Amino acid sequence: MSSYLETHRLRLRQWQVTDLSGLRALCTDAKVMEFFPAPLQEREILAFYQRHQAAIGERGFGFWAVERKDCGEFIGFVGLNAPRFDAHFVPCLEIGWRLLPDAWGQGFATEAANACLQFGFDRLGADEIVSFTARVNKRSQAVMQRIGMQTSDADDFEHPLVAVGDRLRPHVLYRKRAPAL
Prior knowledge:
By secondary structure, the chain is an alpha+beta fold.
């Protein structure tokens, strides 16, 4: 199974040790982490890197490192994951992304996410792919809508890994079904 994807402008690929500095910048940036409980600590960044590097190596997918093809610059990650928390929609295949602010507003998240959806449906045979975010995260919800995902108030949930009472605990769930053959 392929361990990378390409779009017109982007390469979604296996993690390399040279990506660690970009991943650190990404996971400690206040704007990027606005809708997460806290910026990641060094050990969490390394664990993320190792977990997704291993997932891609073993399964052929995970959250891929994303680089621009025109300059080779690391801009973040986009990919597929299997969340492991207790919620009404788990087990599932999740699509997610996180890009550096300089890469925002250029359609990179949408472009990469569409490639990941196609991979999930065509190569993995998924019937459905979900995405979720804090209810207050309108930017990520806009990407979900641009890639054709749908939401329902009945699917909204309280994220079990976010503290009770935290403004980020209420989450929305978006779904996309595999295209009919």
